[in-house]
Write a structure and sequence with these properties.
Chain lengths: ~220, ~425
Amino acid sequence: MKILIIEDEKALSEGIAIYLKSEDYLCETAANFNEAMEKIELYDYDCILLDISLPGGSGLQILKELKANNKTDGVLIISAKNSLDDKVEGLRLGADDYLPKPFHLSELSARIAAIIRRKYFGGSNLVKFNEIEIDTVAKTVSIHKEPFVLTRKEYDLLLYFVSNKGRVISKNAIAEHLWGDHMEGNNDFIYTHIKNLRKKMIEFAAIDYIKSVYGMGYKFTDQ
Amino acid sequence: MKLLAKYNRINIMATISVLLISSICFYIMIRHVLINQLDEDLKLEEQEVLDFVKANNKLPYPAEYKDQQVEFIETNGKPVYKKFRSLMVFDKTESEELLSRQYQFSIHINDKMYTVLIRKSQEETEDLIKMIAWVTLGIVILLLLILFLINRFLLSRLWKPFDNTLAQLKQFNLSSKNNITPKHTDINEFTELNKSVLQMTERVKQDYESLKNFTDNASHEMQTPLAIINSKLDVLIQDETLSEFQMLQLQGVYNAMDRLSNLNQSLLLLTKIENSQFKEQENISLDALLKERLSEFEELFDAKKLVVNLDLAPVHISANKQLLDILISNLLNNSIRYNIRDGDIFIHLKENRLSISNSSFLPALDKQKIFQRFYRHADTKQDGNGLGLSIVKQICTIAGYDVKYSFQNNRHCFEIDFIKS
């Protein structure tokens, strides 16, 4: 999978690239408008991360160009403006998703995974992790082909974990993914919530993939 | 008081007093002239009597005409002073008392002293004065009427350009892009006013634009470094050689980072609401929206083992969905965050009124300060950024809702009236 990161802040695109590489994505970066235009003309990408304010031009212009050339690259806008107008305009122009800065890389990764899933698997799609199968269209989970009943938040949490498998996710990132910024500064209840999911999985299939990392985050791994 | 009314009042009072004083002067003058005329006539009569006496050395016969009487009275005393006076005299023909002017003087004939009284009716003079007074009064009333009509119709027409500009100023709203277009007027003062208004609104618009750009830029400049810190942290915690101590330090950085980005978002939101950037209105089912939010928060209620009591009647309002969402989320959020373990929350929705009350570890809050930015009770530790209720208040102000806080039976209660006040 090839990803193009169009972002003028080197430090940020570097961080994103490092994080995504561990997911076996091939990342390229473009730091300004012209460089980005050059790359989208020459190559096809599975997903393009697009910053709106760029030196030399607007990210929305790049988006228009992409659609004018009938490119099918998935586009995820990452903008610092978080303005509704930008979001509406971006989605109207054909972007797949919009993520306001600042964001957690685990969130970004999950969104990219969702875009690629939609792009390549269309109607029916299963996300698999060993014996776990998540149907992202029906929003159901099965383990060993047995339906595994979860609440909506538990489902979201499990999918989030699987989308970021093998990586440490901070409690803050989990809280924000599940409840937006509503529970800022009070992440302790996350512990209860994750404990419940973990217990359910152990009881259902005797599997325990959720590892706590020194109380600061969690890792979903079979190692 | 309206300028026109004030001007009218002064104008009419001045006019009335000038007319009144001049009428009185006029009356006195006319009266003086007419009485003088009468007195001249009486003097003329005296001269005739004196001429007769000189020629004939005897008194003429007393004459009694309709408007003039001459009377001779024999006296033994001293001669009387020549004197004019007005008095009521019985008139035989009219058989009533009539006002007359009388002149008295003395004549000395053959060692006999006579007092001569010449009288002339003053009634006609009085009638004349009366008529003149009526005519004057009529003129005064006519003048006042005309003045009033001029003030009423002409002046209000003259003020039209001013009223027009004022109405447009009242309608002026920075965020909506309507311009002020003053009506053309040939009155210098109003042209000047319109020019100044145009200049001022132009300046205000420019300032507003630059402020908005500044806010936008500031947010951009803040969000990007925040995003970098965040991404670096996310990469850093993947390092498996980090010790528990280092991880705990990083947790502190994460939390501070969250607070900072949350604060930044909230300030931006407040600015956006103040700038009325949420204008789209739609019909929203308040009870459905509440239920949706409540199901989102379900795990949060469970974590604190909170009992939620619902009493929701169907209520539909026209509002901005995003703002209403933030309003409800902020209130629910507070009711969870400051609640005690095993506490409860009551949510009532009835007839356009939403009330959310909850048990809490906090005592009564200061009603004056509760909606102020960064107001936080000393016992709240570091939860929240102190902007949640300011945002609630701001949303209510913009939308015209009434929001009230009360503390009863150890419960905090927020009440919102969705009827536009």
